[in-house]
Amino acid sequence: MAKRKSSGFFESVKTVVYALLIALVIRTVAFEPFNIPSGSMLPTLEIGDYLFVSKFSYGYSQHSLPLSLPLIPGRILFSEPERGDVAVFKLPSDNKTDYIKRIVGLPSDKIQVKYGRLKINGKTVDRRKIKDYLMLGEFGQSGKVTRYIETLPNGKTYAILEMSDQGPLDNTGVYIVPDNHYFAMGDNRDNSQDSRVQTQVGFIPKKNLVGRAEILFFSKNDNARWWEIWKWPSAIRADRFFQKII
Prior knowledge:
This protein is mainly beta and 246 residues long. It has two helices and 15 strands. Strands 1, 2, 3, 4, 12, 13, 14 and 15 form an eight-stranded antiparallel beta sheet that branches. It has a four-stranded antiparallel beta sheet with strand order 7-6-5-11, with no helix packed on it. The relative contact order is 0.19.
């Protein structure tokens, strides 16, 4: 009887180990979940959104592996990001912190922001004003922020927020994107530390790309902690479940 119980225990352990290994492989080569901790990608992504990032979209580097283990030299099976992709990458200044921004500049592009307008290779990117975005403050107050639809040269469209066209990052010099690097910006243009801040983020090396944001699968606001089950109905944003990220 004791032998049978021991055998059953080890079988259970083996099953759990196999399940963990399968989950690790899926997380490494296919899809990895991420959550959004800041408002730098509003209105596209909100604080409390949970999304899946495809690890295979841009191929694999050491940053595709757990703990960024240095087992992959450079990048393998590489596919070039498209202008307008919402991408997760390791912050170049520490190679550890996960950032999520929108790629607007490709290698050799000339990028500039002038009076709040994005310019790519000397041409001003089209933007069209739409209904204002209602932004909630941390103390429950609300305010309207100007919202635009921006259209990149490849036809990719998405919404951005602009509190003003005279902010600290609304007038920049010209950034020339180096080979094997990319230029990324947050959709919440006046509240995003991105490639415009060269000392903190700067250009994103190809090897630092983690993957492309694909599907928003869950979303909740800050009104309920995970253990406060009775508050879930008011905290969960079910209308955002299973949305494709554009």
